Amino acid sequence: MNEVERKLTSLRAVMKAQSLSAVYLRGVDWFSWVTGGGSGVVIFTSETGIAEVLVTADKAFLLTNRIERARLCDEELSGDFEILEFPWQDEGAASRWVSQLGGETVACDRPNNGYVTLPHEILRLKWIFGPEEILRYREVGRRASAAMREALADAQPDWSEQELAGHGARALWARGLDPTLVIAAGSKRGTLYRHPVAKNAPLGEWAMLVFCARGHGLYANLTRFRFFRERHQKEVEKFRILKRIESAALAASIPGATLSDVYRTLEQAYITSGLAGEIDLHHQGGITGYLARERIASANTPDVLSENMALAFNPSVVGAKVEDTVLLTANGFENLTKDET
Model-level pTM? Predict the structure, then answer.
């Protein structure tokens, strides 16, 4: 049984247990998951793409317009999907197909038109990776890390933040990754804001670069800094503390633990480090995968961690942040975005 067949079988098992007649997957994240790494994206900012998938008890349908069918079949699909094509002018065609084929109780990742919300059991199917996905994720992480190294190695203190962001995006594109988020900040604006989206301001004494890089639908999230001078002792200490906080979160992230457990560990690590209250100034990351943030850790996120989930935590203080994407395995953690020297 190949990857797509296994996923469809798992979906149908939940459908049967939950008395669902069909599952309707509209988001680009779900398209990549169910097709085994295909892409339904044309516009990066769109949560839904140019194709959707309807899974019933005995068939899997791909719904798309006439513009996209040939390319999807040639380049993005693996597995046996029955193609339902419609004219691009017919905006209601997909909904009519779902009404005709989906039956009485259709669960959808974007529930409207009487659809019900996807059960949590289906969400977890997307969060826990099979062997093929892990291989793809490792490659995405390696490419994202290489793009980050290239962009920061080339950076100059007189570059603008926008120049660095463009250089980072180019490096990702050159490696076949979507630059879905590229934040570049210099030493002035990087001390003012936690999300300093790039402006026409000089980098100055140091630069921060943040990627949410997507390949095969999977996100590699990482943050790096480059100093154009010797780091001050206080700066060295900031990063040392943040690495300790990240290490505490990772140590708490064991199979069976909840995200809220990890959040409480993070909160205590900030307090122990003399940084009480800093956790309130920026989210700390959480589960990642086919979305940059599948679930963000908080005191009220009861999601249970399992082997073969991906996590990305990003503790931060003013002017410093650490972040990598890791895979939770039976033997601990594998850093998917580890810097190769």
Answer: 0.97
